[in-house]
From TrEMBL:
Family label: Belongs to the enoyl-CoA hydratase/isomerase family.
3-hydroxyacyl-CoA dehydrogenase NAD binding domain segment(s): 7-186
Coiled-coil ranges from the UniProt annotation: none
This protein's UniProt keywords: Fatty acid metabolism, Lipid metabolism, Lyase, NAD, Oxidoreductase
Lineage: Archaea, Methanobacteriati, Methanobacteriota, Stenosarchaea group, Halobacteria
Name of the protein: enoyl-CoA hydratase
InterPro entries tied to this protein: 3-OHacyl-CoA_DH_NAD-bd, 3HC_DH_C, 6-PGluconate_DH-like_C_sf, 6PGD_dom2, ClpP/crotonase-like_dom_sf, Enoyl-CoA_hyd/isom_CS, Enoyl-CoA_hydra/iso, Enoyl-CoA_hydra_C
EC category name: lyase
Organism: Halobellus limi
Amino acid sequence: MDAEIESVAVLGAGSMGHGIAEVAAIAGYDVVMRDIEEELVEDGYDQIEWSLGKLAEKGQLEEDPEDVLDRVSTTVDLEAAVADADLVIEAAPEDLEIKRDIFADVDAASGPETIMATNTSSLRVTDIAEATEHPEYVCGMHFFNPPVKMDLVEVASGEETDEGVVDAAVEFVESLDKTPIRVRKDVPQFVVNNVLTPLMGEAGFMLDEGDVEIQDVDAAMIFQRGYPMGPFELNDFGGLDIFTHSRDQWDLPVPDSIRSRVENDNLGRKTGKGFYDYEDGEGVNYEPTDGEGVDTLRIEARMINEAARLVGDDVADPEDIDVGMRLGGGLPEGTCRTADKLGLDNVLEKLESLHERTGAERYEPDDYLVELVENGHTGEKAGRGFYDYRDGGPYHYISHELTDDGVLNVVFDREERLNAFSTDMFDEVKRVLESVDDEDVACVVFEGAGDRAFSAGADITGFTTAEPTDLASVDETVQTIYEYPRPTIAKIDGFCLGAGLEITLACDLRYATEGSTLGSPEIDLGLIPGGGGTQRLVRLIGEPRTKEMVYRGMQLSAERAEEWGILNRAVEDDEFEELIDDVTDDLANGPQTALEVAKNVIQEGQNASLDTGLTLESQGFGLLATTDDMLEGVAAFNQDREPDFGGE
Ligand code: NAD
């Protein structure tokens, strides 16, 4: 089938429903939102109005909020809601019978080719689809909370789902400017929650055993392993009842430490108390120094085992799992990538020893994990694990494209963290420059994904436990950019801070949109710039300004950065692309050897005495005087035409 989606119905105006309706309306769809009572749809509508107002206030809405709101209509009449919809997204309560009733009604009231999607978090798509006459039109479309902010959507197939329906659902998600991941088989909880659940579950089992403290486990996962929240804190945030309910539905074990709290109505933040006491106590109260000696591998081994199960059962690819864990789970890197770094043999050994000690099924290593280890695919060090590293490995945090004109576009692609640099990301930038043949490259353009940041700096989540050698990749990457033989361009739209600024300083040319901000905030972390920031800045803008920027952690507007000489130019948004195109056109059509010599002479000469610099220049000049490009340049000048350089 080949479905075109134009109109959308959302069933349920609660936390998820109104958010989904809002993102669909923002993307330009006409949306009907339905709930069972007038008051509930009105509440949902009011929330959309409020949220659109907030987005407009922050400049994150391209249209007038009223125009977006005009595309949303509400009803309590199911038939009226779905009769003309190409896509129905159900976001009603997480109860199989309710959902089955809804899907049976939708099936009867909608057109024959209407796609019916469920936002269920923990039910099987197939069990819901069975209530319809057209299970091939039913799929999972799992948004994360809040849909307006969260970029990920899991698109899941039921047993009968038509591939065309899934393709149309994926396309729809992309049209919302969200990132879809494919869940190819019908597993309850899809991908992200399956991998994330053991984080909270295993922490609970460790607490049951009585030899760890809540604060220690949370602090260890955050400060040693870089997780954005500790497992207990996270469970309190989501609600211990939700965790328990999702496990009970499938008769899966729940740690006593979690169940007993649910029985006492201590459900987490929403009741004021869970693992932490938010009302009478001080709330979340771990310290960065807590957590010594906590067996974090025990928790991560179980998450990795789940990831292995999903890959082995062909539910999802490692790439999709990792994107899901980053965008949906908020992790600094994907679980499969983490596994390859930890060593799958270490993970397997941990699971085996836990299994042997407890006999609990949850530690039984998945067949796929065992197979990887038996084949020697134990991770990055072995050259293969979840990923194949023999040719350097996949790029997780950057994307790149070399145009026919020789423009190498490198995008820092970690939008969920404002393109902040992790060690992997630094390595990937260096790797891409080294792997593309520079003979094919006329110039390189670096930019950040999205419209909020070039890069907000180095990702500090791993800093507390990083070794100085881990941080060396900053320097190596910045130096590789600086020494790259072709012209390099920083294309800055949004925040350009810390390591982002240092990358920028290593580029030859720097352009920004007027709303961009450049700065060196390292001092506020008790640090100084570590990727050449102090040295390149002082050579560029002199001592007083460099000291002011570094000492005060100043952030400059693009206008000021241009005035100070950091930027070649700052322009308005609507002039930006054209400016970059003009520059890259000039560079791509310019004499390649002369550009390379010019870069070399300017950079080398700057660090030498004037005499040496002048000698370098005259050597370069002499070298170029014998090239075909020079002959062509002179001939073109004489004939009053554009030169056509061949690069020799
Ligand atoms: P909610 O309780 O906030 O909203 C559910 C809404 O559905 C309520 O307003 C209710 O009146 C309405 N409703 C009940 N019967 C209905 C019917 N027959 N037709 C239309 N609406 C009906 O719940 P929620 O948090 O928005 O969750 C909705 C779904 O999304 C659930 O399946 C849940 O598992 C899933 N989900 C929730 C989250 C989350 O974090 N809240 C995240 C992802 C997925």
